[in-house]
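ARCHIVE CARD
SHELF: 3
SLOT: left
DATA:
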Amino acid sequence: MTTSGTRAAHRPSRKQWVIEAATELFATQPPDEVTVADIAARAEMTSAAVYYHFSSKDQVLAEGMRAFATALREQLQALTETHEPGSDVGAAVTTLLAWLGEHRSAATVFFVSSAGMSQEAEALRQESRSELLDGLVRLIRKARTSVTDAEAAVIGLGLLALLETAAISQVRGDDVYRSLGHRSFVREVDALAERIADPAT
């Protein structure tokens, strides 16, 4: 989700423009330090125009998180639908990680910046986590047809923890990510996902 200094001819709705502008700010500054006036300036509109669409910056944050969580869930669903039984799960996890890299600002806000911001943000994160876990369990059941429900649940939880940790490492560009470099980092995530999905290999 990015914006530029000038608006495209087919720009998103004004509401979406506010969300995108706020997401860019929340990704680079602590959300509690961002004001509605800051969001309005980034969106090239007045504060009154922002308030026309949202009652507060917390509502903007929540709407942005909700849209991101929905898009991430849809990505996982699409990967599951096209996943071949018996094929590697690591490729699906690294594909999700690549998608998160393409949506870096929104991923940063969702996984890092919004932590502890509000009860609504935490509730959204927990709801999304539960939905992602369900999606990963479905992926495991498709990839490993002989897996039991209990095994699928544990494997799904392991993959979710891996995806969240890798996403945070990637968007922060932390020491692990920088020392490995992007390609090696992705390879390690792929290999670890495979070990989680099928410990016998």
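SLOT: right
DATA:
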Amino acid sequence: MRTLGVDLAAATKKTAVAVIEWSDHRARLAHLSLDVDDQEIVDLFGSCDMSGVDCPVGWPDALVPFLTGHLNFDAGPVLAHDGIAGRRLLAYRDTDRFCTAQTGLIPLSVSADRLAHPAMRCAVIQAKIAAVHGPQLRDGSGRLAEVYPAASLKIWGLNGRGYKGRGVPEAERLGILLAALEEQAPWLDLGGHRDRITASDDLFDAVIASLTARAAARRRTLLPDDAHAAAARSEGWIHLPSCGLDVLPG
């Protein structure tokens, strides 16, 4: 099995990918790249069995009628979201609320925060993948799953605080975090890329996304139940690991 992890930014710069090859209870980081364009992502998707993208793959269901109502001067759908509670339904998806309930983490809003630009690019990439490899269901039941590295790290007992950034403290924390990952996952061969990963939180997140894609491929993530299934199909679903790191290579 080959899994692809994508840490998606709004533009090519700072977009990172990691491909892990799995065999014989071991895994090897076979490809690692930074400043990746859409075509490389589409090509790598085609060569992998499962892909995990660190970016929302959809928007809240409530957002479309709200915007349509505003465009058409139809007050009903707009006034339905009057007040902070109504606006939360426009800002956060069902899966975001589920993720918060499970992990205590609050994902950034795809419609009201800085994730909006990456999500627009992600929608374009999904369309490009669909043109070549067929549409991928947003709930992750196909070959593309939405992932959230911060949540994966927390579930796996790794301290994911304070490692993002270009400063010396952040670099030190990233080095410590990677060492902790290596200790918990001795079966993972970084393929000589350790120094590159310790120098880039984007590359590190791509590796975590690829590991989470393995969990999704093996159905070792929290899947939407009947109460969440419909929203997951339209809005997307964050795949939270339901297993420890030690289970992934088995």
